[in-house]
Design goal:
368 residues; Aspartate Aminotransferase, domain 2; 2 domains; 3-stranded antiparallel β-sheet; 14 helices; 42% helix
């Protein structure tokens, strides 16, 4: 008998395919695998954190987050998303990842079906399993958008529908019509929509539409990580009806106590301060997207132009994906994101134009 016993629900989950590649490649490798902005956190945000340290703001905060940050998040949601929330409907978390985990733990009963796009972000399936739920992938159409009618067929009897727009790994941005249809249909059938909006500010031709505008049974999840290049600060939030927030708070309280105090004061500066850096990052990502898309299509690789986030989801075939990684172009195989696109690879363009040009050149040696 093995004395080192662990829960089956954890043993059955593999380590993220993205994290496996985090340290892959040699010294000359070009990392297009990790979804992390290569920009520095804006200076005014860093200065706010330093000031918080100097002022001794290093103790526990209220479990739900400091009052001024929750108020600032309410202001942000009204200003940018036309959503009205009260501070007691906001829960500050240790990043968007903890927010997703908390929601799954608080809402999912044993055996509940949890729906999400396939291909979709790797955490949705794993977190549903950890919560005791049954993860179910929803198919996408040929342009990587959610097939609304097929999604409706799967909604009956489901507990959650996780909606991610702009999407990781595809870069697809859902239309207002699709989002409205999914929310209204789901809410009519008792399905809570969980909206993961961490890439909301990185949209290039279309517009972001928050699902909470179209229904009451919606939980919005967001984070400072991508918008303000604050991945290591671990600061996110949940915006939801107070009844949900109170239950989520229990999970957060016993598992985390509170988000890091210093990160909360940094996020306060982020949400209330100058937003110029966000616009600058978006325009640079747009230029990088165009460089990557044009470079790959010139090689004869056809795929939908990414509409948002900073990823391209590219059909390459498993052998070419393996060859690319061997050549030091670190990309993530599609199998990491679900069962429906094993011959695709996610390519992150959250890196310099120089790195992207070098990567295209190496990929040309494989494709050619």
């Amino acid at each position: 008998m093995n004395q080192w016993r662990c829960a089956r629900r954890v043993q059955g989950i593999d380590v993220s395919g993205i994290r496996k590649l985090f340290d892959a490649g040699g010294p000359d490798a070009i990392d297009l695998g990790i979804g992390q902005p290569d920009f520095e956190t804006p200076e005014h945000i860093r200065e706010a954190a330093i000031a918080a340290i100097r002022e001794g703001k290093t103790r526990y905060t209220p479990n739900a987050g400091i009052a001024e940050l929750r108020s600032a998040i309410c202001d942000k949601l009204l200003r940018e998303n036309d959503l009205r929330y009260r501070p007691d409907e906001i829960l500050v978390t240790a990043g968007g990842s903890e927010a997703l985990h908390i929601v799954m733990q608080a809402l999912v009963e044993e055996g509940d079906r949890v729906l999400f796009a396939d291909p979709g972000f790797v955490s949705y399936r794993a977190l549903a399993l950890i919560a005791g739920g049954r993860p179910v992938g929803v198919p996408l159409d040929e342009t990587f958008h959610i097939d609304v009618e097929r999604a409706k067929e799967q909604m009956d009897g489901a507990r959650l529908f996780v909606l991610n727009s702009p999407a990781n790994p595809t870069g697809a941005v859902e239309s207002e019509e699709s989002i409205r249809a999914l929310v209204e249909y789901g809410n009519d059938r008792g399905v809570t929509v969980v909206s993961d909006e961490v890439y909301e500010h990185f949209i290039y031709e279309k517009k972001h539409h928050s699902p909470a505008r179209y229904g009451d049974d919606v939980i919005t999840i967001n984070a400072a990580s991508k918008t303000y290049a604050m991945t290591g600060w671990r600061l996110g939030f949940i915006a939801a009806p107070e009844e949900y927030v109170q239950q989520c708070l229990k999970v957060h309280q016993y598992g985390q106590a509170c988000a890091t105090s210093i990160s909360q004061y940094a996020a306060l500066a982020a949400y209330t301060g100058d937003q110029t850096s966000v616009r600058q990052m978006r325009e640079e990502y747009r230029a990088r997207r165009d460089l990557l898309y044009e470079g790959l299509t010139d090689l004869g690789i056809e795929f939908p132009r990414p509409e948002g986030a900073f990823y391209a989801f590219v059909p390459m075939g498993r052998e070419r994906i393996r060859q690319a990684i061997e050549k030091g172009v670190i990309i993530v195989p599609g199998e990491a994101f679900g069962s429906r696109a094993p011959d695709h690879a996610r390519i992150s363009y959250a890196t310099s134009r120089e790195n992207l040009s070098r990567a295209i050149e190496r990929l040309g040696e494989i494709v050619g």
